[in-house]
Amino acid sequence: MSTHAPAPALELRPFPLRAATAPASLFLRRRVSLSRPQAPVLPGQERKKRVNPRRLETKSGGRILFSRWLAAAAGKGVGLIVPLVVLTLWWAAAHWRWLPATILPAPAAVAQSFHDLLAGGDLLSNLGISLERVAKGFVVGGAVGLFLGLAMGFSPAVESWIGPLFRTVAQLPAVALIPLLIQFLGIEEGLKLFVMAKACSIPITFTASEGIRSIPAQYIEVARVFRLRRWTVIRKVILPGALPSIFTGVRQGLSHVWVSLVAVEILASSDGIGYLMSWGRLIFQLDVVLVCVGVIGLVGFLFDFGLKQVEARLLRWQGSH
Description:
single chain; MetI-like fold; 74% helix; globular
């Protein structure tokens, strides 16, 4: 018989899972470190410190805003470079007498003439007469052009009847018709109104008709599917779609009205800003002529700028599409 005692039975105990008691952030750090291995550091190199993107944004945010502000200011100031250069050359030519003063007066003399005309009331009175004429010609020419443009755009029959004749008349400059129109209308207000209405109606007619014809046919088909009435289709689909083109014609029409009025007042008028410029040329006061040129350019710029603002407000819905 064996004298050795039997070996005790082994007791199996569950191994404690320490990982279960570890914080969750430890696993996150380990997972991140495994998914994004760090590059080995070569001899002579130092490991770069990681920069927090939020801190970078806060530090560079002010610089970015400042750089954008400088870029916007520079973009707006670019348009002043050429006028400043021209003004500098003008002052230099008058100061060193490159041209006689009777041909090119100094900027100071022009400024003094502007003050005298403004204080005496001649500038404002003639400018007011011209602006009143512009309003009348723009209303009449705009109404005629809009009516013809809509008729030619909606009806192919009207386009075939009126289109060729209208395009032929459009090729004739309004100023070229002044000698002929003087024989029938004289130099009174009827002449100026006819010339302005003709100059204004042509671009509005063309842009309105083209805007209506350029509306996609899918819009009309969708309106027919919904069984909209004809007037509803015109008011809700066609006119809003053609409005950008119509506004382009309105801006061009107002510009043509202003230019044609000045030309008529220079050739056949006894008042107005164009007449004042012609009067300054007749008495060899070129400083008065330059004042009128500056006022005419400024008024034309304000006309176009004002219509741009109105167009931007009325067509604001286009930015959402």
